[in-house]
């Protein structure tokens, strides 16, 4: 009952069922644009922080990069580990903690895999750990939802996937965005939540800069066009140590 929401939800089979149709082509398009824009080469060692089941890590490795994927979910890492090779590794790890000091050329935190923790101090700890894990001159990329462009629908979206009924409601609660997921699977009935902090681009830039990192680029979508607070879907920040 007292487990953080992300430990319950990310280890649930319903999480992967709900998001199984995530657009892998879109993810590949973004990574192709990003690696080109940042002039990355296979000589760069990339850390995929909060890697989930490893879809970004696996694709980057297919492009020739050495990649390490870290995630707190045992279920995610167990799944991703089947794809390991000599240049692709996965491990269970808390992103608030340093994994290896000054070991990575690039650290990626993608698809709103940040802002999970209750306090700003805990979330700041993630950024501080990123700084310590980067080599001097290394790059940090965070991809976050643009909370200023979100339209909150008070209604409930209801749909079925493989016989499992999902009811989803999204709302704003003080400084956090909440997505409530009700699941009915035969006689099983569960309620999960996703909670992320309502950080703006300005908030995230300040958190990054206070570690000593320098902001290089601020993009607003996977096409890597300039960020617009009112209209951009994403906040994509590139910074350097």
What is this structure, in a nutshell?
It contains seven helices and eleven strands. The protein is an alpha/beta fold. It is globular, with a radius of gyration of 18 Å.
Spatial ordering of strands, largest sheet: 3-2-1-4-5-11-10
- List the total number of helices: 7
Helix content: 25-40%
Total strands: the figure is: 11
Termini separation comes to 39 Å
Jot down its keywords:
alpha/beta, four-stranded antiparallel β-sheet, 241 residues, Rossmann fold, 11 strands, seven-stranded mixed β-sheet, 2 domains
Q: Could you characterize what this model shows?
A:
- Strands 3-2-1-4-5-11-10 form a 7-stranded mixed β-sheet, with helices on both faces.
- It is globular and about 55 Å long.
- Strand 7 and strand 8 (176-185) form a beta hairpin.
- The model has no long low-confidence stretch (mean pLDDT 94).
- It has 241 residues and is α/β, with parallel strands linked by helices.
- Helix content is 27%, strand content 34%.
């Amino acid at each position: 009952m007292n487990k953080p929401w992300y430990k319950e939800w990310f280890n649930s089979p319903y999480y992967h069922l709900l998001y199984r149709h995530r657009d892998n082509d879109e993810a590949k398009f973004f990574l192709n644009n990003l690696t080109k824009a940042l002039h990355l080469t296979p000589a760069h060692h990339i850390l995929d922080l909060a890697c989930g089941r490893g879809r970004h890590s696996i694709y980057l490795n297919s492009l020739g990069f050495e990649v390490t994927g870290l995630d707190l979910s045992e279920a995610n890492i167990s799944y991703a580990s089947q794809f390991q090779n000599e240049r692709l590794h996965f491990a269970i790890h808390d992103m608030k903690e340093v994994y290896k000091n000054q070991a990575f050329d690039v650290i990626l935190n993608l698809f709103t895999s940040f802002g999970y923790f209750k306090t700003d101090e805990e979330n700041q700890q993630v950024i501080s750990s990123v700084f310590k894990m980067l080599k001097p001159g290394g790059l940090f990329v965070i991809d976050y939802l643009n909370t200023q462009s979100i339209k909150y629908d008070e209604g409930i979206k209801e749909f079925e996937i493989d016989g499992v009924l999902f009811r989803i409601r999204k709302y704003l609660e003080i400084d956090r965005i909440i997505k409530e997921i009700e699941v009915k699977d035969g006689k099983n009935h569960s309620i999960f939540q996703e909670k992320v902090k309502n950080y703006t681009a300005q908030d995230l830039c300040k958190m990054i800069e206070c570690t000593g990192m320098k902001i290089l680029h601020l993009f607003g979508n996977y096409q890597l066009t300039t960020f617009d607070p009112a209209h951009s879907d994403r906040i994509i920040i590139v910074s350097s140590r």
